[in-house]
Amino acid sequence: MTESLLSVRDLIVEFPTRRGALRVVDGVSLDIVPGEVLGVVGESGAGKSQTGAAIIGLLEPPGRIVDGTVHLEGERLDTLSGDQWRRVRGRRIGAVFQDPLTSLNPLYTVGRQLTETIRTHLDMTEKQARARALELLGEVGIPAAADRLDAWPHQFSGGMRQRVVIALALCANPRLIIADEPTTALDVSIQAQITALLKRLCREHGTAVMLITHDMGVIAETADRVAVMYAGRLVETGPVDDLVNRPRHPYTEGLMGCIPTMHARPVRLDQIEGAMPAPRAVPPGCAFHPRCPLAVERCTSERPPLVARPPLATACWVRSPDGDAA
Amino acid sequence: MSPRDEETVAEGDPVLVRLRGLTKHFDVSPPLLTRLIEGRSRQVLKAVDGLDLDIARGRTTALVGESGCGKSTVARLLVTLYRPTAGDLVFEGTDIGRLTDRRALASARRRMQMIFQDPFASLNPRWRVGRIIAEPLRAHGLLDDPAAIRRRVAELLEHVGLRAADAERFPHEFSGGQRQRISIARGLASSPHFLVCDEPTSALDVSVQAQILNLLRDLQRDLGLTYLIITHDLAVVRFIADTIGVMYLGRLCEVAPADTLFARPRHPYTRLLMETVPDLRHPDRDRRPMAGEVPSPLDPPSGCAFHTRCPLANDRCRRERPALRQDGPGQVACHAAEEGRLSPEGGDAVKGMRP
């Protein structure tokens, strides 16, 4: 494997509450190499968005990183101060969030938001920044970009707004973009446009993407590697094809089986009984064991480590016993 | 493969709901004074614009389309939450769109129920589950003996995979999937023949979605229910529907038995919709994203509403609105299909679309 662009080790994120700390991310380790698209999937509450927020230093207080490290190109991020973050966020890591309307300031024109962002990160005059903004709008496929530069966010449709947000994220040519459910708020025909756009731009610019989504279809088409999260933990990672078609973890397997597809019509869908536990009620041992058809005694008491057995790394006592790797 | 897979909704199937020219317009004009002072005109949103559809008894019919296509308005019209502007809405032989007699309306409403998308918003947080489920029984005066109501609630809870004891708990004690089960139990309380489900699984995680879809299928088998499912998710439709209607800007562009629609989609919009959906098992499929966006329903394009995005549009499409006409086992509203300009397989219909 080449040198990591982003390296996360044993990340733990907690939200302190009056009734004790809620652990929403529990010992997540992952790497992203330059130019790679890493898909992070999981159901709501699995901790995927919190992982993304922790990496980019945007955890909602009182949420905080209690343990673990985040390194970007060798520089440690999790200990940066607010001021120091400003050099990194936007310039070296861009972000695209789910709702394009709340990501844009409704009181500024699109052009002003772009030029302001460009000038914050790059040493440019107003005129140069405007030219760069125009170029970016064209690049993300906004028709008649020159006329749209002075338009307000409300004058754009949802899909067009998301294109503007992507242009904003790309402003300073970051090495990594964290995209949290970038297509979830959009219609299917627009979703495909945005996914294709994100994929094309990142390939052209050599930008790596951490794509956080609950939609396995989007992951299958976009990601190079996938990390599956469950109850705040990483349960399996690996190349997208292996993970989708030959998963080892019973949760990944169940997840793939229960997704309906347009190409087949089974009499029943496979289903995983029950629901994912809330952060306060994560069971001891493997968090998945109460829903797992394969669970054995050991799963109820001992937490399985993520064991690498290429091509996948799996955290499961039954399917991937520890052996000597750890 | 079950026998169901082979069957299609033949013309002879008994029809539970018959829609003819169903139309719902909303007046979204600015206030009178604004119109007078600023010289603005009245504005009408044609949410549903002349819909013809038969819903077969004991089957699942699905309406699919993107946001703003009018599919949820159809659902609300069907359960008489809205009154149609024009057209017929015949349910079990009665035109319920024009009913004014409260008792007749109540009787029709007892025989149809709706399941909503958001199981967090559709259950009263201050009521115990037992009271929520019993509400239709009380509202329609079906049972009034408390013991009988309790027995019926217990039976309904068990039917949807919950425990009788759950009647004593509050909605917040349940997960999203369990809440949707409670909604379904409430929907079944008045023993309806017809369930309208508006995006029943869109708010749920995939592993829970599978549970609810399987449950809906089991209930249909056990109770002989007729479903109308409103959804934007083609994979869900593939699993659950017998007949599918594809909507675009308030109109149906294609109606066909599910197997036909997926094997041989006819309308260019249906074809593009299928191409744009990412698929888990076929990620390398040559997908071309659909160009353009859904036009505003306030100002729909002339002629065929889809002509602005259609690779096959010609002058006639821009001028003349295509009618829904028989085409093989289904119906399609497309001049290109009628004139034989469509390719049979659909693959090359999208040539010339830019990514």
Strand order of the largest sheet of chain A: 6-7-8-3-9-10-12-11
Beta-strand proportion of chain B: 15-25%
* CATH class descriptor of one domain in chain A: Alpha Beta
Please indicate the percent range of residues of chain A in DSSP E strands (runs of 2 or more): 15-25%
The N- to C-terminal Cα distance of chain A equals 18 Å
Q: Give the strand order, joined by hyphens, for the main sheet of chain B.
A: 6-7-8-3-9-10-12-11
Supply the number of helical segments of chain B.
Answer: 13
Instruction: Quote the average pLDDT of chain A.
Output: 90
Keywords (chain B): ATP-binding, Nucleotide-binding, Transport
Organism (chain B): Roseospira visakhapatnamensis
Membrane topology (chain B): Peripheral membrane protein
Subcellular location (chain B): Cell inner membrane
Structural summary, described in words:
The complex is a heterodimer of chains A (326) and B (355). Chain A contains eleven helices and twelve strands. Chain A has 326 residues and is α/β, with parallel strands linked by helices. An eight-stranded mixed β-sheet of chain A has the order 6-7-8-3-9-10-12-11, with helices on both faces. In chain A, helix 4 crosses helix 5. The two termini of chain A are 18 Å apart. Chain B is globular, with a radius of gyration of 22 Å. Chain B has 13 helices and twelve strands. Chain B has an eight-stranded mixed β-sheet, with helices on both faces. Chain B has a four-stranded antiparallel β-sheet with strand order 2-1-4-5, covered by helices on one side. With 355 residues, chain B is α/β, with parallel strands linked by helices. Chain B has a domain of 90 residues. The N terminus and C terminus of chain B are likely disordered. Classes of the chains: A alpha/beta (326), B alpha/beta (355). At the A-B interface, helix 8, helix 9, helix 10 and helix 11 of A face helix 7, helix 8, helix 9, helix 10 and helix 11 of B.
